[in-house]
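Dear colleagues,

For the upcoming journal club I promised to circulate an example of a predicted protein-ligand complex. I picked one with adenosine monophosphate because it came up in last month's discussion. The inputs are reproduced below in full, followed by the predicted structure.
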Amino acid sequence: MIRISQILKDKGDRVVTIGPDATIAEVVDVLQRERIGAIVVMQEKEGLVGIISERDVAHGLAEHGAELLAKRVADLMTREVVTCTPESTVQEIMKEMTVRRFRHLPVVKDGALLGVISIGDVVKNRLEELETETTMLQEYITGRV
Ligand code: AMP
């Protein structure tokens, strides 16, 4: 069973964050520059206060039109952030992402933000795992061990 700590070791622990008072124009800029789909919202005293993803921006655009760009992160972000821990397993977070229909999970331990896992990281890990399994089975069947 692969744990999230292993994925973080491979991909690194860099987390892109933004403040709740930043504008959506800044969000769009960061999403594009960093080539990511979601940004963790951090406030100095409170720490993790939300998450804002490209879906929030798309929905915001439908609702507010061009005025969206001047709105604040706090107006659009999701405040109830679901997180996982380094000990969570890939299976557990796959289920969480599927049931809750989102693609990003901040990794938190003892109040510290240790990384973000995206659905892309999960798919990459699952594919690698399945490829290894297939190779092992083929070698077993053909006797080429
Ligand atoms: P996503 O699929 O990550 O683009 O996000 C879809 C929706 O779920 C957006 O409204 C996000 O703000 C929200 N969201 C994304 N990740 C989380 C999370 N870990 N906890 C709570 N809401 C989230």
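Two points we might discuss: DSSP finds six helices and five strands in the chain. The chain has one domain: 4-142.

See you all on Thursday,
B. R.
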